[in-house]
Design brief:
Strand order of the largest sheet: 1-2-3
Order of helices and strands: HEHEHHEH
Strand content: 5-15%
Largest sheet: 3 strands, parallel
Bound molecules: zinc ion
Number of strands: 3
């Protein structure tokens, strides 16, 4: 059911080999608009697909590089329930990188 991003992991290996002793690895995960579109994934809630993906990638990073903390952009987490984040243990796996000066179109009315 889950389509694991092997190309992303191979790229991460290359980045880590070129930058030894780093403490953080930014794994992106921002602006994920195309997700859950195939017949199998469309049966899973989008938040679960996203949280499951981030969890798997972060666990992969920690398994191969225990001293490295994965970082993700915060935008996909802004609407997610804390209980869902805890369910996938993201609070133990990743550090969110918050962009204070960037609002998405659907958040503009909240900024007034
Ligand atoms: Zn799929």
């Amino acid at each position: 059911m889950y389509h694991f991003p092997y190309c992303q992991l191979r790229f991460s290996f290359q980045v880590m080999e070129l930058t030894p002793n780093v403490k953080y690895l930014h794994i992106g995960c921002d602006e994920v608009f195309q997700m859950g579109e195939c017949s199998k994934c469309s049966q899973v809630p989008r938040d679960n697909l996203f949280l499951g993906h981030v969890s798997r990638v972060a666990k992969w990073v920690k398994r191969h590089y225990p001293a490295v903390t994965p970082i993700i952009w915060d935008d996909m987490l802004r609407h997610v329930l804390v209980s869902s984040i805890e369910e996938y243990h993201l609070h133990e796996l990743v550090e969110p990188m918050v962009s204070e000066n960037f609002l998405y179109y659907n958040e503009l009315s909240l900024a007034d």
